């Protein structure tokens, strides 16, 4: 039977994973992801204040943010291919070491004796190799069956929620108590610990031998990491490009809103920094509940196509509400719908796309998926700034409704043709 063959293949893969069993590998993956996200949000909490301390104007700060997004955009597809070819251990270790380099340069930029602005921009360079989240998604994809994959991927939302809440709180608390460089130093040490855990405990490969095909052995011949044709060829597989475009187009309007979120909190809602932090913590809590509990339960009763259509439809409703909101209370009321749509869109599209490619290419596919957010961070600041300056906050709601209404019509008239089994 195909199913029993797949289980035997996974069993052979688990046997190759070394001392850690499958549950422990998954737990270590969640821990490494949470650690990385906590450090990342600690950085986000101090970067605006560090930039102001170094005398950066808003335009230069925008260049700094765009640099971070562009480097991650360029790095994600190649790093995903690297994870496929070299395995989870190498990918997690390099990502953690790159994060350590970033935080070391960030801590150095806080020193008055050093060229702070140059070091601050230099600290963005290692971000091209910081891809713990897509690596974690690859491991979870490799170690889960197609049926349980949406639930397993949604649990990463717990890590994101923990990172959002603890990272924001720790970043503000530590910088106030011990200086603005303290969060960067702690993040540097934490990522060195993550690199040590990855190198010593993470299995070299989590690619399972399935009934349909064998993962390429780690010691075998490898295609070039920078073979763009091999990377883009995945998008031309049946059904892949359409789902990828749905993921990109449907989530882009909300990405524009999130790019301007800090400005909207100050200008439109009139919030102080501490109040913005509380709002961000509420965002993280909702994200944990949605991805950790809600999506897993819905996946038991609804198909992935139905969940995808529901996420786009809720995006439309939230867009209308966003166009009409006038206070932070209104935003808090619509935030659960926004979180549900964002989480469901990402989890379901990632699940569909990893099922549409061979097991040996899941890391590359997830790298392409992960490039959507850096693309928004690269193109979003300029476009969102122009829209906000010209039309104000309601424009983001109008754009979100219009774009997702068109996407919903396309999904309704031409349903996705999904395959139940992994392709060969």
Produce the secondary structure layout.
Elements: H1 2-15, H2 22-53, H3 58-86, H4 88-108, H5 116-122, H6 132-142, H7 149-154, H8 156-178, H9 182-201, H10 228-233, H11 240-259, H12 261-267, H13 273-301, H14 304-324, H15 328-355, H16 362-370, H17 372-391, H18 394-413
Give a quick set of tags describing it.
single chain; 18 helices; 76% helix; 0% strand; disordered N terminus; mainly alpha; 424 residues
Mean pLDDT score, rounded? 81
The shape, in one word, is: globular
Span from first to last CA? Answer: 16 Å
**Low-pLDDT runs:** 1-16, 209-221, 418-424
Report the biggest beta sheet as strand number plus sense, adding barrel if it closes. Answer: none
Per DSSP, the total helix count is 18
Sketch the topology as an H/E string, one letter per element: HHHHHHHHHHHHHHHHHH
Strand content: under 5%
Q: How would you describe the overall organization of this protein?
A:
The structure is a single chain. With 424 residues, the protein is an all-alpha fold. Helix content is 76%, strand content 0%. Helix 15 packs antiparallel against helix 16. The longest helix is centred in the N-terminal third of the chain and has 32 residues, at 22-53. The chain is globular and about 60 Å long. The two termini are 16 Å apart.
Quick recap:
The chain has helices spanning 2-15, 22-53, 58-86, 88-108, 116-122, 132-142, 149-154, 156-178, 182-201, 228-233, 240-259, 261-267, 273-301, 304-324, 328-355, 362-370, 372-391, 394-413. It is mainly alpha-helical. Helix 6 runs antiparallel to helix 16 (362-370).
């Amino acid at each position: 039977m195909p199913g029993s063959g797949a289980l035997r293949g996974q069993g052979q893969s688990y046997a190759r994973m070394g001392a850690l069993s499958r549950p422990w590998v998954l737990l270590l993956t969640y821990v490494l992801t949470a650690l990385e996200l906590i450090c990342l949000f600690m950085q986000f909490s101090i970067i605006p204040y560090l930039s102001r301390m170094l005398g950066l104007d808003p335009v230069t700060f925008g260049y700094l943010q765009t640099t971070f997004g562009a480097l991650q955009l360029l790095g994600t597809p190649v790093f995903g291919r690297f994870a496929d070819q070299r395995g989870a251990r190498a990918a997690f270790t390099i990502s953690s070491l790159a994060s350590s380099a970033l935080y070391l340069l960030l801590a150095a930029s806080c020193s008055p004796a050093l060229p702070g602005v140059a070091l601050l921009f230099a600290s963005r360079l290692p971000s091209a190799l910081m891809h713990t989240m897509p690596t974690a998604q690859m491991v979870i994809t490799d170690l889960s069956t197609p049926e349980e994959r949406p639930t397993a991927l949604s649990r990463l939302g717990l890590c994101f929620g923990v990172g959002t809440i603890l990272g924001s709180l720790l970043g503000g608390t530590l910088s106030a108590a011990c200086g603005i460089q303290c969060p960067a130093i702690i993040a540097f040490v934490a990522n060195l610990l993550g690199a040590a855990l990855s190198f010593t405990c993470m299995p070299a490969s989590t690619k399972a031998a399935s009934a349909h095909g064998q993962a390429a052995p780690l010691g075998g011949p490898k295609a070039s990491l920078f073979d763009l044709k091999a990377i883009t060829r995945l998008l031309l597989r049946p059904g892949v490009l359409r789902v990828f475009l749905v993921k990109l187009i449907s989530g882009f309007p909300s990405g524009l809103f999130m790019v301007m979120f800090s400005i909207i909190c100050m200008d439109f809602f009139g919030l102080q920094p501490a109040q913005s932090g509380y709002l961000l913590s509420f965002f993280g809590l909702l994200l944990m509940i949605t991805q950790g509990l809600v999506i897993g339960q819905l996946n038991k009763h609804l198909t992935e196509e139905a969940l995808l259509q529901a996420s786009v439809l809720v995006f439309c409703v939230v867009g209308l509400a966003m166009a009409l909101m006038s206070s932070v209370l209104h935003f808090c009321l619509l935030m659960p719908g926004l979180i549900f749509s964002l989480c469901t869109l990402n989890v379901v599209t990632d699940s569909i796309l990893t099922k549409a490619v061979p097991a040996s290419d899941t890391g590359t596919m997830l790298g392409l998926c992960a490039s959507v957010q850096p693309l928004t961070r690269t193109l979003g600041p300029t476009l969102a700034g122009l829209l906000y300056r010209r039309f104000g906050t309601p424009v983001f709601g109008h754009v979100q409704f219009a774009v997702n209404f068109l996407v919903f019509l396309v999904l309704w008239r031409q349903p996705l043709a999904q395959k139940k089994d992994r392709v060969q």
